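Summary for the funding panel

The consortium committed to producing paired sequence-structure records for every protein in the target list. Below we show the first two records in order, beginning with the earlier of the two.
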Amino acid sequence: MDLEAENFVMMSPCSSQATGAIEGLSIFMFSYLCHMNCFSIFGEMRKPSARRMTLHTACSMALCCIAYIVAGFFGYADFGDEVTDTVLVFYDVRRDVLMAIAYAGIVFKLCVGFALCMQPARDCCYYIIGWDVATIPAWKNCLFCGVMALCALLLGLFIPVLNTVFGLLGSFCGGTLGFCLPALYRMYCGNWSLGTVGIVNYVCTYLLLMAGVVAVVFGTGASLYGVVR
């Protein structure tokens, strides 16, 4: 009985192994939030078309995937299970010149990435408020963007664990915006049936929706459980 109880605890959804796996899934889901820049990129392309957009997206995602795999592999090879949040804290930038240069590159990347992420967020807020980004005064635009940047800075200072941010954003926002809503849009945009879209498109759309529901429900729950644990 003791062995069965121990096995039950280890396989329980609230066990550390299960929640850790679900939190890892939420972090992976965070990577699907990059689609919010698609409209801006498409509008700035030299010759915009669906084919060119698909090709550029596939190439950029492949490069990012390779970079993430390489960084994750060598980080795990260096420190193994000691890494629980971010591998950057294990490097000494004061003594290692190469890591200091890498840190400078990371800071530059974060600044550029923050601007790319804040632009569609700002446009969404302007749309809700009723402002036009093309006609709004420059001082009002700078003030609004400055307030958004200040809020992001305060959240970054007072949220100690980076995985918590990635987990919550990945599970809730990534599951909703990257999985559930695209599948629902495809289903309700019209002319949706097994005969019109084909078996592959039909099944994959439902799989996309179910994956989003699983990510939102279990991923958000696991992330919140990790915060209060």
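The next record, for a separate protein in the list, is shown here:
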Amino acid sequence: MGIMPVWKDEGSKLRLQQLSKPTQPRGNIHQYMKLLQEEINQKVIIQVNPHHIKLYSPTFCIPKRDGSYRKILDARNLNTETKRIHFKMISSQDVQFAIQQNDFLTSLDIKSAFNHITVHPSLQPYLGFQVANASYVYIGMPFGLKLAPIVFSKTLQAALAAAKEGLTSTILQYADDILLINKDKQVLLVETVTVKQRLINLGWVINNVKSEMIPKQEIRYLGWIWDTKLMTARMPLNRQQKLFFRLSQMIQQTINRQFVRIKEVAKLIGKLQFLKFQFQLASFHLIKLNRIKDRAARLRGWDSTLQLKLTILPELFWWHSMILANKPLELLMKSTVTATLTTDASKTGWGAVLNMNQQEILASATWKKPLSLRSSNQREARAILYALRRFKKQLM
């Protein structure tokens, strides 16, 4: 059947056809052509008559962390006309609560993950692109599609449910990354091979280079190094080095009162915000940086620049020292956790999930005065406050 379109309204298809314009690929053309040929060979794309295509989108390739490249479909126009579907993926906290001291860990990585999912014929004409004089459409789900993560995750979840039948290991999945946990090293070794073979039998392709098949007590997963002997989590060395260098640059730019692109500041804030799992006070040391970024974007637009103020130096120096030290987070033992509260916030409202006594309790509401909550930090903080008030009886 494959992934189907979920249009925003009845006029979505017509608006997309009016935006359709063939463009040539950009980026590293040599690497792009190699990836294009791979997609043809793997039947991820097919060449079609141009009249078959209702929406052309730009394509390009980007370098990955391991030095290889990934081909991307710039589907922003299609995504604009697609309904948003909310779903929850596992977080670092879920891994924290799943592992216990001296557990053994393995991981499996799905190769060309999204391309495993077929595209429904009704959506294929809207996934067109052009290279030279040839026109192609995706028949395997591409990177760049808004619905791709949820469709892929739900499909892999179903496959994993079948693959782990009769096994004792705990299995967690985030997108194409699978983590297996077991107290017994030999049992985990056997069950990792079993899960891998069952997934292969179901048609999935395993990336052996990125997978960790040998059970160990220190492993990289979800961007963290997990150590079950010491029960700690810390950022990997390469992330530490890159962030330390970028912060050193921004400190110098601030001292020199230089102008920097607003998007560069937002990018750094996002990377630092990710570290709040390791550094519990992270959000409090981004308040001033967030404030000048939001104000500049509101006044001049995201494509403009801003002048870094000296008032942000204390925040930058705090981050500089924390990343240099890279003090591991000490993980709570599973037996000490009695309840977990997860919150989320958007421009229109908030939601929360309380997991307690093996029960999941939900709460949500819309903001009464949404315009008074201008920044994401304000909305997130208000969501936590409202959630604690809503669950006061359960938590007392």
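Regarding this second record: The first helix runs from residue 12 to 19. Residues 243 and 249 are 10 Å apart (CA to CA).
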